[in-house]
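WARN retry 2 of 3 for item q-0093 after timeout on previous attempt; input resubmitted unchanged.
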Amino acid sequence: MSVSENLNSVRQNIPSQVQLVAVSKFHPAQSIREAYECGQRVFGESRVQELTDKVNQLPSDIEWHFIGHLQTNKVKYIVPFVTMIHAIDSERLLQEIDKSAGKVNRTIDCLLQIHIAEEESKFGFSLDECREFMASGRWKQMPNIRLRGVMGMATFTDNEAQVRREFQHLTQFFREVKEKWFADEVSFSEISMGMSDDYRIAIEEGSTMVRIGSTIFGSRQY
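OK item q-0093 returned
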């Protein structure tokens, strides 16, 4: 099947209130253009060099989301154009985004990455680390970032009950953070969870944003 056929098939499984981030990392600009011509405008990338190359080749109304682990020394290259950064896994990274965004007079939407999986290789705040950071209030002194919600990745496993449980934990934690620190902030509203293998479960457990790559674009082209 073509990219456009795959995309339309995925869309049929996603409720209108859930945003689809088409994960285009490792795929050529021409594949992104095919999805774009089907009306897709939100794309996710995880490598800074690859993203900056694609930005120059593709339409300017694309909304780029950075979804991978982001090193602080690479932040300055994407803040002039990126719409949202999904994987905020440290206070230091948030400070760097705030500083770099300030230099180009932008405010960047950010999601707090929470470590919900049983895999050590995944990045993210632990629940307690995130609570401590929220309670400190230091994020309020960063005028060029806007916290929009949370993001997490479930364990890569065939055990659907475990995946569901991990997504439930993230949704519960989102509600806790919302209630304690963002009760009056309408913009703190996003739970980014669910990828090609598990997005249906994620949606059932409260996801507002799914990140789908291989189901749309096929296997990665390195």
